[in-house]
Amino acid sequence: MYSKEEIVKSVPQTGFVGQPKGLFTLFFTEFWERFSYYGMRAILLFYMYYAVKDGGLGLDRTQANIIMSIYGSLIYMSGIIGGWIADRITGTRKAVFYGGILIMVGHILLALPLGVTALYSSMFFIIIGTGLLKPNVSSVVGDLYAPTDARRDSGFSIFYMGINMGGFLAPLLVGLFQKNWGFHAGFAVAAVGMFIGLVVYLMSQKSLGLAGSFAPNPLTDVEKKKSARNFTIGGIVIVILGFIAYQTGNANIENFSLLITALGILIPTLFITYMYRSPKTNADEKSRLLAYIPLFLCAVMFWAIAEQSSTILATFIDTRTNLTFLGFEIPAAWFQSFNPLFIILIAPIFAVLWTKLGDRGPSTPKKFALSLFFSGTSFLIMIAAIVLTPADTLVNPLWVVFSIFLVVLGELLLSPVGLSATTKLAPAAFAGQTMALWFLAAAAAQAINAQLVRVYEQVSETAYFGVLGILSIVLGIVILIISPIITKAMRGVK
């Protein structure tokens, strides 16, 4: 077991744009992992609801949106298992590698013309693989820096820019392959991206020093037996409940979505309670966990809006937006590139801004509040697009692009800052698991979205976008008012 100081000293502290050298390894590993994921996600919804004659599976559109929301929620929920495995068994670096292999297998299955069976099988592998990789690669980034290192927030912003470079290129390339050679060709491109990411990771691990090389809270022999027993019992219970649901006719997507929504809310609640009550969490760490709760709620609200880019907004783009430009029909998947494109352009500005402002910059709670103002306004813009567009006329795509731009401003105020804050607020014994908790905010948001996509079909578009937009802005105002209380409870963390 090594101390935080020993880990930081083992990492070359210069070598990548003024950041620790290991940031290069993690930057490009996550670049290719996100390339594979966002490339697949850009066409997956369309693959599900396009007619069989168009190369799709021919599923009902609402059902396809529900499946996408459930899928997104489970991907982030799986971070609980991935964080636990890294903390207690493998360490974060091995978890990242094993996760990458599983993700690649999932994309290969989608690239094969095996229908619905391959769809659900691939989702299983990608869910488990992402749970191992995504929270743990971010944890390793945190290990590269001393807690008081002023470069920390800017380092996470640079790392976040790498994520979005992959996210920008993937929909363009995958969408192009899908348009010209079909959905399975597009999914094959995603599989190749993950393979490249694994090669980059293996070839440059030395730059990480000791970061992520050991489990910070390894299982004792007694705990190993107890864990094996609990996982076995849990697996049996899941199989029995699934069998009962099937026999009683309750095994359908709608009921499963209700279960996921309940878990999306319940699991983070139990998770925070468990860490707070643990004897391994000291008084300062307990206070920081309490401060984390309103930040977590902010993140849930933000991602409930932002993650609809792959469901409601993607459907709106595909069915309600004018996709013809200069005689060329733009693939709907290409709109998924606007979010990462804006982040690539703006993230460096934010990184420089936080570094220059230093202690004079807005506190983490205030940044979160501002992010909710932007996300709420993005949905109000969608109302303007609908109201100002003549009936029976397709919406000008610039409205959608502007809405995406506002979400990006909110994302840069919340996501990289939240990653950084999570590594600083995490109890020492639960470092990987607290990072998993951060991703549970997106899981909870998507779990809630599994119900919202059903509401979307029942109410007017203006009511749908208006209620969510106003709710986001109101919550932002509340967080802004109580930000001094939150900051005080963070016990010196900004």
Automatic annotation (TrEMBL):
Domain Major facilitator superfamily (MFS) profile: 22-487
UniProt keyword annotations, A-Z: Cell membrane, Membrane, Transmembrane, Transmembrane helix, Transport
Membrane topology per record: Multi-pass membrane protein
CDD domains given in the database record: MFS_DtpA_like
Localisation per UniProt entry: Cell membrane; Membrane
UniProt xrefs under PROSITE patterns: MFS, PTR2_2
TM regions (residue ranges): 35-52, 64-86, 95-116, 122-146, 158-177, 183-203, 231-249, 255-277, 289-306, 333-355, 367-388, 394-414, 426-448, 463-486
Alphabetized Pfam families for the sequence: PTR2 (PF00854)
Family, as annotated: Belongs to the major facilitator superfamily. Proton-dependent oligopeptide transporter (POT/PTR) (TC 2.A.17) family.
Cross-referenced PANTHER family: PROTON-DEPENDENT OLIGOPEPTIDE FAMILY TRANSPORT PROTEIN (PTHR23517:SF15), RESISTANCE PROTEIN MDTM, PUTATIVE-RELATED-RELATED (PTHR23517)
Protein name from the UniProt record: Peptide MFS transporter
